[in-house]
Write a structure and sequence with these properties.
The protein has 265 residues and is α/β, with parallel strands linked by helices. It has 2 domains: 112 residues, no CATH class; 130 residues, Glutaredoxin (3-Layer(aba) Sandwich), CATH 3.40.30. Helix content is 51%, strand content 12%. It has 10 helices and 7 strands. The strands form 2 sheets. It has a 5-stranded mixed beta sheet with strand order 5-4-3-6-7, covered by helices on one side. A two-stranded antiparallel ribbon has the order 1-2. Strand 1 and strand 2 form a beta hairpin. The protein is globular and about 65 Å long.
C-alpha cells in the first residue's frame, strides 16, 4: 500500500513508540541476513538461520502486541501496511485487520489496507481456491470443484511457452509418481484463439495425460484472470477441501512438497 503521514501528538507518540521497539530488530535482522549470505558452512549457517527466524518471530510479536493494545488507534492500519513486507502472509494480515475497531477500519489508511488485502488474497496460500469451469479438449465443461476430495495441482501453461514446456517433464514425473495417492493435475492452457491444434499437439508431444482445459483466450483466459496469473508457468496446489496450500512449485520443490504431504517410498 502507499505511504501515509502520521500527524497528531498522540498518534505520533504511538508511532514513535512502536518504531523504537521495531526498528532495532529490523536492523538486527538485516545484519544477520548479511552474515548468512557470507556463510557457507552448514552448521554455522543453520545456527544463524535459527537466530534469523527468532528475530522474525520477535518482529511479529511486536506487531501483534501493538494491534492488541491499540485496536482503535489510527496508527494501527498504517503499521499493518508498513510491516506487511516482513511476513507477506495475507491470512495473518487479515486476521490482524479484523481486530481493529470500525473507526480504524474506516480511516483512510484502514480503507486502503482493506483494498490491499482483497487484492493480495487472490490466489494466496491459505485461502479457498476460486471455482472455475472451462472446456476440456473434447469441449466438455470441467469444473475445479469436480476434483474436490483430491490434492490438485492447477497448472497454468501454454504450448507457446518455452519455460512451461521445459517444466512439463517434471510435472509428468510427479503426476505418475503420486497419481495413486489421491493426487492429480488440472492443466489450464493460455493458448491463443484458433490454435487448438497447437495445444493438442503439445499435450501429446509432452505426454500430458491428466485433464486439460482452456477457453483459448490467450492472456484473457478467464481462470488465469481469476487467479491473477501474470506469467507462466504458474501453479497452485489445492488440498482435498479446496484450500490453496502452496503455489509456484517448480523443479525439485514440487516433489519435495508432495512427499511432505503424501509420503514418498
Amino acid at each position: 500500500p502507499s505511504s501515509y503521514e502520521i500527524s497528531g501528538s498522540n498518534s505520533h507518540k504511538e508511532f514513535t513508540g512502536f518504531t523504537a521497539a521495531f526498528v532495532p530488530k529490523v536492523q538486527q535482522l538485516s545484519a544477520t541476513a548479511a552474515v548468512i549470505n557470507r556463510t557457507m558452512l552448514g552448521k554455522e549457517r543453520d545456527s544463524l538461520m535459527n537466530i534469523y527466524t527468532g528475530i522474525q518471530a520477535q518482529l511479529q510479536e511486536e506487531i501483534d502486541k501493538f494491534i492488541k493494545e491499540k485496536p482503535a488507534s489510527p496508527v494501527s492500519p498504517f503499521i499493518l501496511s508498513a510491516t506487511y513486507g516482513f511476513n507477506e502472509d495475507v491470512v495473518k494480515l487479515e486476521s490482524r485487520y479484523n481486530q481493529l475497531t470500525a473507526a480504524a477500519k474506516n480511516s483512510e489508511a484502514g480503507q486502503q489496507l482493506a483494498g490491499f488485502i482483497a487484492k493480495e488474497k487472490v490466489g494466496a496460500v491459505g485461502t479457498q481456491a476460486m471455482e472455475f469451469t472451462q472446456p476440456d479438449t473434447l469441449g466438455v465443461p470441467v469444473s475445479l470443484s469436480s476434483f474436490r476430495g483430491k490434492y490438485v495441482l492447477i497448472d497454468f501453461w501454454a504450448s507457446w511457452c518455452g519455460p512451461c514446456r521445459q517444466e512439463n517433464p517434471t510435472v509428468v514425473e510427479n503426476f505418475n509418481y503420486f497419481k495413486d495417492k489421491n493426487f492429480t493435475v488440472l492443466g489450464v492452457s493460455l493458448d491463443r484463439p484458433g490454435q487448438k491444434d497447437k495445444w493438442m499437439e503439445a499435450i501429446h508431444a509432452d505426454n500430458l495425460t491428466w485433464t486439460q482445459v482452456s477457453d483459448l483466450l490467450f492472456w484473457n483466459n478467464a481462470a488465469a484472470q481469476l487467479y491473477n496469473v501474470k506469467g507462466i508457468p504458474q501453479n497452485f496446489l489445492i488440498d482435498p477441501n479446496g484450500k490453496i496450500i502452496a503455489k509456484n512449485l517448480r523443479g525439485p520443490a514440487l516433489r519435495e512438497k508432495l512427499c511432505e504431504i503424501l509420503g514418498c517410498n
